[in-house]
Amino acid sequence: MTTPDPYTPGTPEPGATPPGGTEPQQPAAGQPGQGQPYPGQQAPGQPYPAPGQAYPAAPPAGQYAPAYGQPPQNPGKTLGIVGLVLGFFGPLSLVGLILSIVGLVKSRKVGQPNGVAVAGIIVSGLVLLGTIIVGIVAGIGIAHVIETCGDLGPGTHSVDGVTYTCS
Fold first, then answer.
1. Which helix (H) or strand (E) holds 136?
2. Do the beta carbons of residue 87 and residue 123 sit within 8 Å?
3. Angstrom distance (rounded) from CA 149 to CA 156
4. If phi over 0 gives left and psi between -120 and 50 gives alpha, with beta otherwise, what is residue 35?
């Protein structure tokens, strides 16, 4: 007959039946207790870090792994969409162009494609170019009317079939 281990309370003698007359149930495979630690416990066989040794570093803020089964997030996608939408609105196309470029750069940093940002850059660039051309033409036309009114003086004048109302 062997003596129970005094350092492990409740250790039965080999071959002895525990109180209650039944053998203890073993946990099913994959459940804690079958060589796997409970959450927050050290896994068996893994040493604790030595005193003064650092634990593994946490990931940088905002850079967590995506949820299981979901594709990784594209950080520039939203900026690309906003840039594309703003690209259609004349003077706001400059803001749309900037946002689309920033969105494309952010997407490329994580190695993801961003076709919406590319479309935003193209649309914003074309609309911005058209807005600049329309602005130049309108500026030249206003300058011509101001010059003509300066030569004719106040009142309504008809020159070569064009009526100018100067005040």
1. helix 115-152
2. yes
3. 9
4. left
- Beta carbons of 157 and 163 less than 8 angstroms apart: yes
Q: Which amino acid is at 36?
A: Q
Tokens representing residue 131 in the block: 């807005």
Tens of pLDDT, residue by residue over 37-47, are: 555 555 566 66
54 three-class SS = coil
Residue type, 3: T
- Greatest alpha-carbon pair distance for the chain in Å reads 128
Structure tokens at 113: 């494609």
69: left (phi over 0), alpha (psi -120 to 50) or beta: left
Residue with tokens 């071959």: 15
Identify whether the C-beta of residue 70 lies closer than 8 Å to the C-beta of residue 57.
no
Question: Which band of pLDDT confidence, cut at 50, 70 and 90, is reported for residue 162?
Answer: confident
pTM, whole model, 2 decimals?
0.54
Tell me the CA distances in angstroms from 84 to 42, 63, 122, 145, one per residue in order. Answer: 51, 26, 9, 36
Q: At residue 32, what is the residue type?
A: P
Contact status, residue 100 vs residue 132, Cβ threshold 8 Å? no
